[in-house]
Amino acid sequence: MLFLFKKIFPQLFISIILEDKKNIVKASIYRGNKLISSNEKTFDKSENLLEYIKNLSKHFLFYHTALFLDAKEQGLIPSTNIQDCKHFNIGKISLQHILFNNALVYTATEHVEYYSELFEEYRGLDFLYSPFALLYYNIQKEKQPDDQILLYGFKQGHLLAIIVAKGNTILYGDFKIFEQELGLELELPSEDNQEIENNNDDTEVTLDNFNEALNNKFDLLDQENNLETLNNNDNFNLDELNQFSNDMELCRYIITSIEKFYNDDKYAGVFINGILLYSESDINISAIDFLESETFLEIKTKQINTLDLMIELMLKELK
């Protein structure tokens, strides 16, 4: 009877990404397997997002909520025995885990408990999706031959999940969270600094400090002129420079991960045939060229939407 009701009544599927400055929610309404409508919203504060989904879900008899897990304390081991975490140098912390084929994906128990409590007063949390879960879901959809060994990467924001798989058999997993921003900024000297310089003008003038003060003023003038030039140059984009640096760091980490897979006795170390990267945003072509030249592997990229993936996976798991 419940199955019949779910076929008749609309169901609400909610996927959420919580970040420090940008909290995103996507709400999709399905009747049966047919998408009726979909809406995406962004909130500065997570509290506002949670209140929004609480009010929205009140209008539906059936609703399902999924959250993207971006905690540092998570990972994957190519083993079905949780006791093998010691063998893979996993710290002595309380863990929750789930089985994916021949591997375990784990996270700290405290994260599961925290998010369960956080959503308790907002009508509950049904799914907590690790990036490894979304990555492995994509791997299964690729339907690669069993003799094909590929390195798969899942990039969402500033995190990267890596799986090396032979067909659907997992050989290796890695996880990395990168620095939020490189902090590439151009600033003129502050008013406080200028005030200090003005105060220095009142000191006794000697040949040495006169030359020093003159050079400082020339430096200040150069900074002002350079900044004005940069502001007028449409081709100079600090955001693009930041993105390029972030993508280069990502590619360097992939190289490090490949070396670990080849050299660490805990892993099979078999030859990787290629690399497939899933990313929300475009990865800089120069960074891809660098990765290709360093690894001698063919690199393919596919653009994904994490919110859509979570809803897609919820629909699959609830069938």
What does this structure look like?
- The protein has 2 domains: 2-68, Ubiquitin-like (UB roll), CATH 3.10.20; 74-181 and 237-317, 2-Layer Sandwich (Nucleotidyltransferase, domain 5), CATH 3.30.420.40.
- The chain is globular.
- It is an alpha/beta fold and 319 residues long.
- The strands form 3 sheets. A 5-stranded mixed beta sheet has the order 3-2-1-4-8, sandwiched between helices. Strands 11-10-9-12-13 form a 5-stranded mixed beta sheet, sandwiched between helices.
- The protein has helices at residues 2-8, 46-57, 109-120, 131-142, 191-200, 207-232, 238-263, 285-295, 306-317, and strands at residues 11-17, 23-31, 34-43, 62-68, 74-77, 95-100, 103-108, 127-129, 149-156, 159-166, 169-177, 274-279, 298-303.
- 40% of the residues lie in helices and 28% in strands.
- It has 9 helices and 13 strands.
- Helix 7 packs parallel to helix 8.
- Keywords: Hydrolase, Protease.
- This is Clan AA aspartic protease.
- GO terms for molecular function: peptidase activity.
- One of its GO terms (biological process) is proteolysis.
